[in-house]
Fold Tryptophan--tRNA ligase.
Amino acid sequence: MQRIFSGIQPSGIPQLGNYLGAIRNWVNLQADHECVFCLVDMHAITVWQDPAKLRSQTLTQAAILLASGIDAEKHILFNQSAVSAHARLAWIFNCVTRLGWLNRMTQFKDKAGKDRENHSSGLYVYPNLMAADILAYKATRVPVGEDQKQHLELTNDIAQKFNHDYGLEFFPTVEALIPPAAARVMSLRDGTKKMSKSDPSAQSRIEMTDDADTIALKIRRAKTDTDVLPADEAGLEGRPEAKNLVTIYAALADTSIADVLSQHEGQGFGPFKQALTDVVVNTIAPIAQETTRLMQDENHLVKTLRSGAARAQAIAEPIVSEVEKIVGFVK
Ligand code: TYM
């Protein structure tokens, strides 16, 4: 059985893009994989996080994942900082990765923008920690949204260089599992920007804890154009907001874009947004409700993460210990 590793930053409340690009896939992959799912709190602090919020968001995120169908007993759910193997392997990878490789990472450029000098060095070496997350478990498959593809290519470059430098076939090749549909859900306010849990405008995203009224309002306010829905996908070219809403609909209704357009062709956005609201609420409302229930027992959530961390540690510790021996550290 192949081992899966994937992570999500507790830097906000997970949004619909996280769900469609990653979480939904994680839930389905549990049937035939050994899965390790991680709340990457060490990644989150590469940009400022209010400590109390980081703690509560980590617990909320654990609740959302459980409510979405992650099975924390059959599989592993934990927070990154609880397993020291991540930090130890990340340091070794800091010494394997070349600066030139990191300079090519588009996510750093997007996040740091023109103000590069004022960002943390953690944000810059972030992809090395991500490679360590995956390779500390020798995971071979990583379900992510489209935006993480470049980081996974870097993970393979690091693994290959490590294997080559030390003359061993130690780390496996990692395969990105990117969903065929909705691998990049866009902002409701700007169809050219990725939907993100850290966007300053909450109107730009559907959060996994939004109630039906909030979802309806956000979709009603979502940016669109003045045209009607076209007959086929070609008609969505140059209409990023329309394309995004149709893509979300198709992904949530488990159907194709062509099928959605054949049902709604010629419709204005008023009625289409109504139909979209129903589809979104059908998915999110039960998850939000179960999340609220799980949040009432914080102790249980903390215990679940601790038990996950102990089981994660049991896998990662021998692997990272072995890496330290390979490198020449006295153990
Ligand atoms: P993060 O927290 O930004 O996002 C978690 C997952 O959600 C996906 N995603 C999206 N998919 C589609 N449309 C969107 N708008 C959208 N926004 C986010 C992301 O691709 C991701 O799969 N670096 C990672 C966390 C990480 C990780 C790892 C992932 C740390 N270590 C090891 C996999 C393996 C991140 O920032 O995800």
Observations:
- The chain has two domains: 3-177+297-327, 202-293.
- Residues 5-9, 17-18, 20-22, 40, 43, 130, 133-134, 142, 144-145, 147-148, 183-185, 194-195 surround tryptophanyl-5'AMP (CB under 6 Å).
- DSSP finds 13 helices and five strands in the chain.
